[in-house]
Amino acid sequence: MALVVLLLFAGVSEAAGRILPVAVGRPGMSRTRVAGLLCAGGLVEGAVFALWPLTAWTLAELVLSSAPAGDGLAWTPDLVAPLVLAAVLAFPLLGPFLHLLLFVAVGAGLAGPLAAATDLGWWGAAGCVAVAGAGLGIAVEAVRRLVVRISAAEARGAVT
C-alpha cells in the first residue's frame, strides 16, 4: 500500500510541476479545473512510473535469447523514494538538470535489480531501463501535447 501511495504522490507531484506553471499563465482557469487536471495528470504520471520496471523487464526478455528465471522487476519503497524527490523537482524553476539527474539515478537503481534477475549484466540492464524510460517519457509527452492541442482548439472554438 505504501508503494502505491508513493507512486501516486510522485505522479501528482510530476503533474503539478507540469500543470501549475500553465495554470498560472492562464488567469481565467478555475480552481476546480486545475484540481481536475492535477488528479487526472497525477494518475497518468503515476501509471507511467508504475510501468517503468515492467517495460524494462519486457525489453530485457526481448533482448535475451531465453526467458529470465525471475518473476519480474518491481518497485520497492527504497527505489521509489528518489523518484518522489525527482517528481517534486519537476517544477521548471527548481532545476530541470537536477530533475534529469535524479531520474538517471532512479534508473540506475532499477538497473541493479534487473541485472541481478537476468543475465544481461549491469550495462545491458541499464540500457533496457533507459530505453523503457525514454519510450514511456516520449509517449506521455505525445499525449500531453495532444491534450494541449485539443484544449486550445476547444478554447478557440468557445471564443469565436
Q: Give the number of domains.
A: 1
Share of helical residues: over 70%
Question: How many H/I helices?
Answer: 5
Low-confidence sequence ranges: none
Give the overall silhouette: elongated
List keywords for this structure.
single chain; 160 residues; mainly alpha; 5 helices; 0% strand; elongated; Integral membrane protein; membrane; transmembrane; transmembrane helix
Quick synopsis:
By secondary structure, the protein is an all-alpha fold. The protein contains five helices and no strands.
Notes on the structure:
The chain is mainly alpha-helical. It has one domain. The chain has helices spanning 2-25, 31-63, 77-88, 96-117, 121-159. The longest helix is centred in the C-terminal third of the chain and has 39 residues, at 121-159. It is elongated. The termini are far apart. The relative contact order is 0.13. The model has no long low-confidence stretch (mean pLDDT 79).
